[in-house]
Amino acid sequence: MIDWVHPGFVLIIGSLLIPFIPKGKVKQGYLLLLPLLAFIIIILMPEGTYGIISFMGEKVTFGRVDKLAKCFAFIFALMLFIGMVFGLRQKEDGHHIAGFFYAGSAIGAVFAGDFLSFLCFWEIMAFSSVYMVSFSKTKRSYKAAYRYILVHATGAVILMAGIHLYYFEYHTLAFNLMEFSGLPAALILLGFAINAGFPMLGGWLPDAYPESTVPGGVFMATFTTQTAVYALVRGFAGTEILIWIGAIMALYSVIYATVESDIRKLFSYHLLSQTGYMVAGIGIGTSLAVDGAVALGFTNVLYMGLLFMASGSVIYVTGKRNLKDTGNLYHKMPLTLIFFMIGGLALSGAPLLAGFASKPMILSAAAAEHLAIPWILLMITAAGTFLSTTLKVPYLVFFGKDKNKNPDVPKQKPPRNMMVGMTLAAIACIVVGVWPQGLYRLLPNGGNYHPYSISHVVWTVQLMLFTWFGFYLLLKMIKVQHVINLDFDWFYRKGGKLFLEVVAKMIVTPADTVLSTIYIPLIIKPGKWIANDCFSFDRRIVDGIVNGIAGFVIGMSGALSRFQTGILKDYGFALIIGIIIFLNILFFVIIR
C-alpha cells in the first residue's frame, strides 16, 4: 500500500505526458490540474518521514515532512498554479515541461532529508531552469543561459565537494543544522550562497532573469533563490556572519535597483535585496528571526511573482522593457497599474499587504538582539525599495512622458489568462496582509507575532511619507538613460575571457606548435607513405586477383554457352554421360 505520494514526482512525471495531451482546453486544464494535485497533496500531507531507501549503505530520505518544508512547498505549489494560469498561452510543450521539472525539483529539495537526494533535486532545478531563459530564443538569452548554467554548475561542484568532505568527517549524509566551522561547512555554505545570490556572487541573477520568457520569469523569481533560503534556514540558522552578509546584500542590491532602467533587471535586483533580508534573519537565528525569514520568503514569492507578471504584461503589450521607452500607459493598462501598485506596496511592507506581515518580524528580531547597524541598513533598504518599486517604476511606466509616443504599441490588452494570474497573486497579497495569522500557523516556530501594533504602523507610514516627499522634491531631476550598470559579474566575465586568452597564448599555442612539429614528420608523413603503399597493393594485387577471377568466370561462361544447342537429344546424351561418370567415381573412389 502506498502511504505517501511525493508532490514533486507528481509534477515531474506528470509533465512527461504533456506532449500527448490534445491541444486546446484539454491541455490547458491538464496544465492547471498538475499543480492543483501537488498543492492538495501538500496540504493533506501529515508530518513525518517518508520515502526512505537504502543506497550504498546510506539512508536516502525523499520525504522529511515538517513545518519548515511544508511552508516552502505550500507556496511553491501555489505560485506554480498562479504562474501556469499566467502562462497558459505559452505554446511550447518543452517550456511547460521545463517549468514542471523546475517546480517539482524545488519541492523535492525542500522535502529532502539528506544531502544526496537534496543535491539530485538541486541539479535538476539548475538544468531545468536554464530552459526558462533559452526559450526566449534570442542571441542575448542564449548567452545569458550559457553564463547561468556555468555559474550554477560551478556552485554545484563546490556544494558536492563540501558534501563529500562533510561525509568523510562526520560519516553521515543527514541534512540538518550544522555548525559553521571547518572546510566542509564553508564549502556547503558557499554552494548555497551562489544560488542565493550573495554579494559578489549574485550577478548571474539580474543577468539571466530579464532574458527569460514572460511566464518563465515568474517561475525563476519563485524557486531558485527561495530554495537556497530554505537550505540556509535548514543548515545554517544562527550563523552570525549571515547577519552582516544579509544586511549588506539588501542595501547593495537596492542601490543597483534604484539606478537600473531595465524593468525586469530592476525587479531582479529587488529580489536579491529581499533575499538579503531573509539571510539577515537566518543569521540572527532566534525563533522570531527564523520565522520572519521563512514568512518573508513566503510573501516574497507572492509579490515578486506579481511584479514579474505585471512587468511581463507591459513587455507583452508594448514590446519594451526599458523605462526610457515606456510612459503614459495608465489609460491603456489601468488594471496592470493597480497590480503594479499592489505588488510594489506589498514589497515595500505597506500595512494590509503581504510584506507588512513578514518584513517587520526581521526588523523586530534585529532590534530585540540590539543589532543597531544591521537594523539601520535594513531600514535604509526599506526606503530605497519603496522609492524604486512603488514610486519610480509606476510613475515612469504609467504616468511619465511618452517620448516616443509609443508608435509600436499594439492596440491590444493583456490576455485574459494574464489578468487572472495577476488577480490571483494580488488577492493572495491582500489576504496574507489582512489575515497574517493564517501565514503564521505555517511557520516552523508558530509565528507568535503581532504586526499591527501602533508603533509598527506609524513607523512604516512615516518612512513611506518621508520617502514620497523626497521623491516629489527630486521628481524633475529623474532622468532615465539606456545604460549598462556593471556588477561584480563583470570580473568573472572579463576574467574568464582573459583567462582563456592567456591559456590560449601561453599553453595552447606553444603546445600546438610543438605537437605540430612532432606530429607532421612522425605521424602525418609516415601515414601518407603507408596509405600510398596500401593503395598500390590494393590496386595491383587485390584488384588484379579479383579482376583475374572475374575474367576467368566470364571466359568459362562463354565456353560453356557453346554446348547449349537447344536440341533435346544432345541434352539427353550429355545427361547419360554425366550419370556414367558419376557412377564410376562412386564405385572406384568411394565404395572400393
Automatic annotation (TrEMBL):
Primary localization class, coarse: membrane
Recorded GO CC terms: plasma membrane
GO molecular function: oxidoreductase activity
Topology versus the membrane: Multi-pass membrane protein
Transmembrane segments: 6-22, 29-55, 67-88, 100-125, 145-168, 180-201, 241-259, 271-290, 296-317, 337-357, 372-397, 418-436, 456-475, 545-565, 571-591
Key word Membrane present: yes
Stored InterPro entries: ComplexI-like_HydComp, ND/Mrp_TM
Chain ranges of the NADH:quinone oxidoreductase/Mrp antiporter transmembrane domain: 112-379
Subcellular location: Cell membrane
Keyword list, A-Z: Cell membrane, Membrane, Oxidoreductase, Transmembrane, Transmembrane helix
PANTHER family listed in its UniProt record: HYDROGENASE-4 COMPONENT F, NADH-UBIQUINONE_PLASTOQUINONE
Protein name: Na(+) H(+) antiporter subunit A
